[in-house]
């Protein structure tokens, strides 16, 4: 087991007090491809932000790799996320000031476990895997949505994280690109032995994942 | 182990942002540059003028003057040889010799006279001096234009003239002129030298001749009218009070009394320099503050992404702060360079002699300290201006931004 959420409750106080997650408990094993499925507003994103340690303001506990993230200081958490968690958003969010290759390299440059050349080699290798090898020197804003999402996946992989979390990664893509991105995430799970959690509406995706968690109004349907 | 915030990666990211908006970065740099340039040029020029006046006026004049008090009406004085001679000279001498703050003092006998050359005749004030004493008060050799200095006054019937006075009399060194004193006595004098202090009001009227000659002609052997005092610490004029209390029969003036306009002028120039420079740097600082604030607002998505992939709040502060610092350092260095060039050009610009000062070119003070101060000013302003937006950047909440709110 790589990740365990224990009785997570999440409230928003603005504009009025509202419970968004209600006693959510779940366990995810290594090398699992799990999809989180549910209507818009059911709390998928909120849950994923908590699972990816971006949001620590919740009740309950989150244990990743046998460590409770509630015991970690903010700076520890940042380093932890840097080394162990890759995140893919619905909007790819590449940095427009940097070219494709630099975007992929950024998390590894922060980790600073390898030198610049090794990181570059690794990044080129990942770009090849996602089929974007020829675009390395292009400014990141000069790519199509599907291409940007593939670069974002390469960026999420650069530090070889144990957990990849994707919040509606295909939400803005056409069917062809959706298939391509999902295939990539599936390959990552199978070939690189990673754990992947995807929030999605897309029935094709959740039908093809190892396990589906369905959310209704902030709770998991059992 | 925590990694240092100042690292290559953060620096690289900062540079990337800086170059991504070349125009704004350039304008911000120019802003700082203008502030520092103005500061340097103004302070070089203003302190140059101050120093020049200090040198010309205060070094050429005594710090404290004791003179005999006028008895009776002023009409009487102008009519006849009724000079205001100084009393209690011996006691004053003792007091001055013993005083800690007195560097040197010199006796003078000063009398009005009319100077007559072959072409012109002019009124003037004649300073009868004791050459050895006076030499300690005024460094006349540095200011000589023609002829000899105080040493020539060891001969009787010699006179030294201010350059403007000499010009109006159309006289040069080694010429002779005639002097008529208020008591009607007249005498032929040899013009031994001509000097210039660079201040029109001095060069127009000042003359030096041997006190002994003047005393003899006035029939006032051993009398003097003034004692000139140079202080060790010019700003401490406590001695003035002592003298006034002890010697009621005399008038005591210090350099501030005699040069009020110059003292005020120096102050005004100081205030002007500091306030204008400060205002300009404030404007430059605001410019940077605005640009950085805007950047942080526009880049909040990037900041959120950087944070989600593992960049800490301190990394973010550094990434944005270093941009301001780079702008500040470059702007300040350019400003110091330009400031130097402009000051240099001014210092070589010929200056028409005005009614007030006589110099060839504008006086400029190239003190290195001002350049260091200007650099520090520019850099500190930009760091302050950059810090608050950077702090704001570090507080961006990635979840809020990624949700697209
Ligand atoms: N910052 C916020 N403040 C207040 N309410 C929020 C905030 N973010 C999300 N919500 C609410 O929480 C609920 C769950 O949102 P979300 O997790 O984004 O759902 P999903 O991703 O499944 O569409 C929604 O009702 C949404 O309006
Ligand atoms: Mg969502």
From TrEMBL, chain A:
The species this protein was found in: Aquimarina algiphila
Domain ABC transporter: 3-222
SUPFAM superfamilies: P-loop containing nucleoside triphosphate hydrolases
Entry annotated with the keyword ATP-binding: yes
Top-level lineage group: Bacteria
Entries under Pfam families matching the protein: ABC_tran
Keyword Translocase: yes
Name this polypeptide is given: ABC transporter ATP-binding protein
InterPro entries: AAA+_ATPase (IPR003593), ABC_transporter-like_ATP-bd (IPR003439), ABC_transporter-like_CS (IPR017871), MacB-like_ATP-bd (IPR017911), P-loop_NTPase (IPR027417)
Keywords: ATP-binding, Nucleotide-binding, Translocase, Transport
GO molecular function annotation: ATP binding; ATP hydrolysis activity
Family: Belongs to the ABC transporter superfamily.
TrEMBL record, chain B:
Protein name: ABC transporter permease
Compartment annotation: Cell membrane
MacB-like periplasmic core domain mapped to chain residues: 25-238
Membrane-related topology note: Multi-pass membrane protein
Keyword Cell membrane: yes
Gene Ontology, cellular component aspect: plasma membrane protein complex
Main location: membrane
Pfam families in alphabetical order: FtsX, MacB_PCD
Keyword Nucleus included in the entry's annotation: no
GO biological process: lipoprotein localization to outer membrane
Organism: Aquimarina algiphila
Coiled coil: none
């Amino acid at each position: 087991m790589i990740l365990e959420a224990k009785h997570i409750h999440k409230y928003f106080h603005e504009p009025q007090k509202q419970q968004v997650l209600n006693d959510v408990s779940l366990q995810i094993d290594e090398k699992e491809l799990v999809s989180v499925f549910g209507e818009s507003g059911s709390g998928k994103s909120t849950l994923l932000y908590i699972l990816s340690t971006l949001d620590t303001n919740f009740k309950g506990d989150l244990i990743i790799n046998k460590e409770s993230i509630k015991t970690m200081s903010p700076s520890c958490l940042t380093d932890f996320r840097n080394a162990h968690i890759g995140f893919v958003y619905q909007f790819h969010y590449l940095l427009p000031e940097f070219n494709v290759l630099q975007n992929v390299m950024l998390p590894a440059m922060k980790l600073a476990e390898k030198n610049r050349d090794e990181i570059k080699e690794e990044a080129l290798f990942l770009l090849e895997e996602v089929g974007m090898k020829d675009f390395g020197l292009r400014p990141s804003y000069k790519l199509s949505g599907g291409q940007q999402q593939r670069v974002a996946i390469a960026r999420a992989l650069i530090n070889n994280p144990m957990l990849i979390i994707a919040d509606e990664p295909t939400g803005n893509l056409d069917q062809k690109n959706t298939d391509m991105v999902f295939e990539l995430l599936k390959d990552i799970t199978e070939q690189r032995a990673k754990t992947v959690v995807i929030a999605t509406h897309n029935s094709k995706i959740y039908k093809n994942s190892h396990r589906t968690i369905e959310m209704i109004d902030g709770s998991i349907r059992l | 182990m925590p990694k240092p915030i100042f690292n290559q990666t953060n620096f690289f990211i900062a540079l990337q942002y800086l170059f991504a908006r070349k125009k704004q970065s350039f304008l911000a740099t120019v802003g700082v540059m203008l502030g520092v340039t103005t500061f340097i040029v103004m302070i070089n020029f203003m302190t140059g003028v101050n120093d020049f006046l200090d040198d010309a006026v205060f070094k050429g004049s005594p710090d404290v003057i004791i003179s005999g008090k006028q008895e009776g009406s002023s009409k009487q004085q102008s009519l006849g040889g009724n000079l205001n001679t100084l009393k209690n000279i011996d006691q004053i001498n003792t007091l001055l010799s013993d005083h800690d703050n007195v560097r040197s003092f010199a006796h003078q006998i000063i009398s009005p006279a009319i100077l007559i050359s072959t072409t012109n005749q002019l009124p003037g004030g004649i300073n009868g001096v004791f050459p050895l004493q006076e030499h300690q008060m005024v460094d006349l050799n540095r200011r000589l234009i023609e002829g000899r200095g105080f040493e020539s006054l060891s001969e009787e019937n010699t006179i030294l003239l201010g350059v403007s006075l000499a010009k109006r009399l159309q006289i040069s060194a080694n010429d002779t002129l005639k002097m008529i004193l208020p008591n009607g006595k007249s005498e032929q004098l040899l013009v031994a030298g001509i000097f210039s202090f660079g201040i029109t009001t001095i060069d127009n009227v000042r003359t030096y001749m041997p006190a002994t000659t003047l005393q003899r002609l006035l029939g006032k052997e051993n009398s003097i009218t003034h004692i000139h005092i140079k202080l060790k610490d010019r700003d401490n004029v406590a001695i003035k009070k002592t003298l006034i209390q002890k010697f009621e029969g005399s008038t005591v003036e210090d350099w501030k009394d005699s040069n009020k306009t110059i003292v005020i002028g120096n102050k005004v120039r100081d205030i002007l320099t500091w306030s204008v420079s400060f205002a300009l740097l404030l404007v430059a600082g605001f410019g940077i503050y605005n640009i950085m604030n805007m950047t942080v607002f526009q880049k909040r998505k990037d900041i959120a992404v950087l944070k989600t992939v593992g960049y800490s709040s301190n990394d973010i502060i550094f990434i944005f702060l270093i941009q301001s610092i780079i702008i500040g350092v470059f702007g300040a260095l350019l400003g110091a360079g330009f400031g130097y060039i402009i000051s240099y050009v001014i210092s070589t610009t010929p200056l028409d002699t005005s009614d007030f000062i006589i110099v060839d070119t504008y006086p400029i003070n190239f003190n290195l300290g001002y350049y260091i101060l200007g650099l520090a000013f520019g850099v500190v302003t930009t760091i302050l201006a950059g810090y608050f937006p950077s702090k704001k950047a570090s507080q961006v909440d990635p979840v809020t931004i990624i949700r697209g709110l």
